[in-house]
Amino acid sequence: MRPQEIVERTLAAATHLRGCVVLVQESSEAVLRWANSTMTTNGHTTSGRVTVIALVAVDGGTAAGVVSTAVTITDPARLEDLVRAAEASARDAGPAEDAMDLPSPTDTDASWDDDATETSIGVFGAFAQGLAEVLAGPQRQYGFASHELTTTWLGTSAGVRRRWVQPTGSVELNAKTPDLSGSAWVGASTADFADVDVVDLAAQAARRLEWGERKVELPAGKYETLLPPSAVSDLMIYLAWSMDGRPAHEGRSALSGPDGTRVGERLGALPLTLTCDPAAPGMEYAPFLSTTRSGDAISVFDNGAPVGRVDWVREGVVSELGWSRAEAAEFGTAFTPPGDNLLLTGGSDASLEEMVGRTERGLLLTCLWYIRLVDPATLLLTGLTRDGVYLVEGGEIVGEVDHNFRFNHSPLDVLRQATEAGATERTLPREWKDWFTRAAMPPVRVPEFTMSSVSLGR
């Protein structure tokens, strides 16, 4: 059965329910992998998933039950089984606090009847030519490139019919010295690999290996630190994930203030704006909500609702928090669901290299790793630096610190303390890449970034 037929047959089998949502996803992924300057893997895979969300009238309100299957469905009776299973799950769950009528359709989706869009190994054509040049170079090269196209069809008993094709691409490259004593990481995110210059990425990694030819020793402590866009993205993503309205309103998060939430509070002197925008060029995501779970700021009852740009922080001031429609009605706010990209803008047009040139003494990081929450009240995070911490003196990089650091810092304090932000550019989060790829960030200068201890791992 075509995905559209699966949606319609499932909804027809659920007419006895208070409501129903059907999500059909078909994913197509192409990958390349290389190690020790030799190609090791290339391949193309496809997968599919059908999710049924049953909305059931129960004592005390409406319950929601969710059932998913990755099995290819050819028998309509299987769809009836999914509806019954979702209905049973809803009855077991009991009335939902986020229950709302499903959103009504707002427009007609002209692409609804289209088939799934597939990627192929061919997406790496120009990239592979550059990679062959890189693999023939003097450094040992390790890396992974992936491109995925996921087509989603969303249908609801309220009449919503929406389709979206989401491209997701990334490349990570580790260059190592011949004796494996030095390592440098670079990465990039992309929608189609047309904008990825792997030769330039490898040149960036080679330059970092050159910086590492001289080793320096530094103790733990507070350092003026230049955070490159990748490191900034990992910190800001955690902040965006923490901006749910209900925990802030109830005093359970770092966005809780002494008299309510911190909406309206100025964080820092720089006019930085933290945004999710489904129309951001090259980083677009679905302009409607599709979700298989409920939680703070998100609800299965909101499936099909239109979504737009949200400024979580606007020109240095906390501007919005996340709210589902039910929460918005409860707290008298606006429906503000989380987004699937993140942009930090409002800095200068300075490059990272120019910011290094203005640094009297400080550290330049490569990326962050193993980030974990320490204190939800302040959003204090801990984690490790990885693949290169470099000492800057007199505007020049003079060597690589011979170890990594464990850091303790809050992304809120990054915004509060930042004294300079450069030009925003698309980047790849190192820590959160598997969950969040579409990010655009500037390099940021933090005068006293806390390196709490020395880590001996590379």
UniProtKB/TrEMBL annotation:
Residues 136-211 form the Metalloprotease TldD/E central domain. Residues 221-452 form the Metalloprotease TldD/E C-terminal domain. It holds the Pfam family PmbA_TldD_2nd. Residues 20-90 form the Metalloprotease TldD/E N-terminal domain. Residues 86-111 are annotated as: Disordered. InterPro entries: Metalloprtase-TldD/E_C, Metalloprtase-TldD/E_cen_dom, Metalloprtase-TldD/E_N. This is TldD/PmbA family protein. It comes from Pseudonocardia abyssalis.
